[in-house]
Amino acid sequence: MDDIYEVIPTLENESFLLRAIDLERDLNDLLKVYSDEKAVPFFNSDNCHGDDFYYKTIERMKQAIDFWNIEYQKKYYVRMAIEDKSTHTAIGTIELFNRKADDYYNNCGLLRVDLRSDYETEKHIIDILNIIIPKAGELFGCDKIATKAISTAKNRISALKKCGFQPSEYFLIGADGTKYDSYHIMELK
Question: Interior CA angle at 71 toward 66 and 73, to 5°?
Fold first, then answer.
C-alpha cells in the first residue's frame, strides 16, 4: 500500500466510505457534525491545545479543515471523512496516527472517531471500526491501537468491546504532562 502521507486511500465496506476530506463537498455536512451539541461530548480533544471541536459557523469549520490539511502535510496525522454510502453525506471524521511518546502509548495508533449524534450507535461504530482496524498496522506501522471512550459513551464502549478493545489502565500523557484517561486499547496482530 502507498504511503498514507502521500496518498490517502479510500477504504470502505457496504455501509461506509473512509476517504480524504474534500472541503467543497464536505464543509456543510461536517458543520452538522461539529455543531451537534449531543455529539461533541464524545469527541476526543485530549492534547488538542484547548480545541473542543464544537464549531458553530461555516468559517470556523473551514478553518478546522484547513488546519487538518496542514497537519496532514506535516505528517502529524491523517483525518478522513466518514461517508454514509446510502446518503452520500459525510457523517463524521476519523483521525489516526502513530504516536511516538515516552508512555505506554508509544508506537500506538491513536484513533479519534467523531460522529454525528444519530450515528453514535453500536452498529455504526462497529461498521466504521471494522474498516480501519484491519488496515491500521499496515498504514501506520503501529503495534496497538487506542481510542478514547468516556464512561457515558455506552454505545461506543460496547462497540469497542465487541471489536476486541479492552479498557486501558494507563494514562495517556499529553505534551504538557496532563494525564488523560478513558482509553481503550487493542493489540494488533
Answer: 95
Q: How far apart are CA 28 and CA 31, in angstroms?
A: 5
CB 148 within 8 A of CB 47: no
Q: With pLDDT > 90 as the criterion, what percentage of the chain qualifies?
A: 93
* pLDDT tens, residue by residue, 114-132: 999 999 999 999 999 999 9
Cα of first residue to Cα of last residue in the chain, in angstroms, is 18
Query: Is the pLDDT reported for residue 175 higher than 90?
Result: no
Q: Report residue 126 as a C-alpha cell.
A: 462497529
pLDDT digits (tens, 9 = 90+) for 83-112: 999 999 999 999 999 999 999 999 999 999
Neighbours of 7 (CB within 10 A): 10
